[in-house]
Amino acid sequence: MSLEPVFNLKGRRVWVAGHRGMVGSALVRRLSREDCEILTAGREDLDLTRQSDVRRWVADRRPEAVFVAAARVGGILANDTHPIEFLYENLMIAANVLEASARANVAKLMHLGSSCIYPRHSPQPISEGALLTGLLEPTNEAYAIAKIAGLKLAQAYRRQEGRDFISAMPTNLYGPGDNFDLASSHVLPALMRKAHDAKLSGASDMTVWGSGAPRREFLHVDDCAEALVFLMTRYSDALHVNVGCGEDQTIATLAQEVADAVGFQGALGFDASKPDGMPRKLLDISRLRSLGWSPRITLAEGLASTYQWFLRHTPGARSAA
Ligand code: GDP
To answer: Residue 79: beta bridge partners?
Structure first.
């Protein structure tokens, strides 16, 4: 089944909240191919955690569609050690952007969550129905609670006021614009930087956190942006939609694939003092597929192009590689 468009972006003012983030910048790239006006606000112009500022900005700029891609994000260590920021900032962003958008009669809004909203021991692959059926993974509970609250708030505006607010739940994402800082990044860019540094320094091995046994799914952010625009224009329902590629691998396998893409030929070492987090996180994307969307970018292609992006955008990296 392929759905007819329910919301046309043509000629609309579309606010990408969080346009400098990895997802937000991919959305801006994708939306630049649509005949719409893209609205953005940098952090220096608008602090999304300040309710009155957000209300004023939205009332003034009058977006007709909103992608809530703004969030405090980070990898397992950042999440585990900064629960205040991950809970407080993400709650505030969701509450302020959704409330201001409702007040300003925004015609369509998409709230973005994450696959970490699902219980730690969800049956795999994880379907949308697994939400709130069990305890969360402790290392990202703060972020997950904020994202679940945002999803529920979008549903509440839909049920109580009839607003066309929807939610999408992307899996682990990677690609251009990713964060390659080892202390705060997710696993894929962290491994890419480690493999690159190890190759350059001639090291005999590189360190992978945890046991290497957890399984993760990775979707290229450009595929994600395609899926989000697809859902924005064709989907209108209270149930959130998983966005993934439908395949996963162990962290050990991922590390080897990243090393191969970078050209690092040394060994992989595993640091058991670092947390594994959720044992497995693979989304069931049958709902998204049945709506008519499928991913295009393979992991091998995505790793190769992301490494090229890293080389171009990291000072000194290209000349040394
Ligand atoms: P998660 O998906 O929320 O658990 O977040 P991450 O992407 O940060 O981590 C995924 C898995 O990769 C966890 O089991 C980590 O321990 C593991 N991992 C291995 N090496 C690294 C690394 O260098 N950085 C990060 N962030 N995770 C790593």
So the answer is: none
Which strand (E) or helix (H) includes residue 253? helix 251-262
Give the pLDDT confidence of 37-90 residue by residue, as tens digits: 999 999 999 999 999 999 999 999 999 999 999 999 999 999 999 999 999 999
Instruction: Give me the phi and psi of 171, to 5 degrees please.
Output: -75, -170
Looking from the CA of residue 208, the nearest atom of ligand 1 is 20
**Residue 149, Cβ density class (10 Å: 0-12 exposed, 13-18 middle, ≥19 buried):** middle
239 phi, psi to nearest 5 deg? -70, 135
Q: CA–CA distance from 145 to each of 120, 199, 296 (Å)?
A: 13, 39, 31
Residue with tokens 């990895």: 22
Closest atom of ligand 1 to 210 CA is 16
Cα separation, 183 vs 78, whole angstroms = 7
pLDDT tens for residues 239-254? 999 999 999 999 999 9
Q: Which residues line ligand 1 (CB under 6 A)?
A: 75-76, 116, 140, 172, 185-187, 190-191, 208-210, 214, 216, 251, 274-278
Name the residue of 209, 211, 250, 281 to mutate for ligand 1: max ligand atoms within 8 A of Cβ. 209
Going from the C-alpha of 94 to that of each of 6, 313, 319, the distances in angstroms are 24, 30, 42
C-alpha distances in Å from residue 37, one per residue of 20, 46, 278, 315? 17, 19, 40, 33
pLDDT digits (tens, 9 = 90+) for 134-183: 999 999 999 999 999 999 999 999 999 999 999 999 999 999 999 999 99
pTM for the structure as a whole: 0.96
**Has 307 been annotated as catalytic?**
no
